Amino acid sequence: MVEEVTNKQLQFITWLITTATDKCQTIEEVRELNKDIRLHSDGLIDEDITDLSDSNNN
To answer: What is the pLDDT of residue 1?
Structure first.
């Protein structure tokens, strides 16, 4: 089943995530927030995101 996201929904999601991450004081807090988001988001794969963050650290 394919679900389409409207621009309004995408704008809200973007606002919600940026508002939450703006409250974080360290990158570790952002990573913890990302873990929580992934736990509640079907379809996101931890390995892909981990690989991306590992490549940014090298």
So the answer is: 59
